[in-house]
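Extended Data, panel c. Modelled sequence:
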Amino acid sequence: MEVGIRELRDGLSRHLATVRDGHTLTVTDHGRPVARIVPVEKPTTFEQLVTEGKITPAARRKAERRAPIRAGGTVSDLVDEQRR
């Protein structure tokens, strides 16, 4: 079932009752799908694939991003400096 943002806002309780009954609700913005509201009991695609053994979750999280390097001047200045 598809519902626009305004309609969802105006009838939120009614639409959530539909989801509670086991239906999936696709939220659209000017006719383009932007979100999906699914019942909590329904497993996500990821959970379903893990259960079926088709995928294995990552053993560890991604590494932390490094702190940005502080430098004076513009990128062009730094590139010119490296080319010398």
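The helical segments are 5-10, 12-20, 45-51, 75-83. This feature is highlighted in the accompanying rendering.
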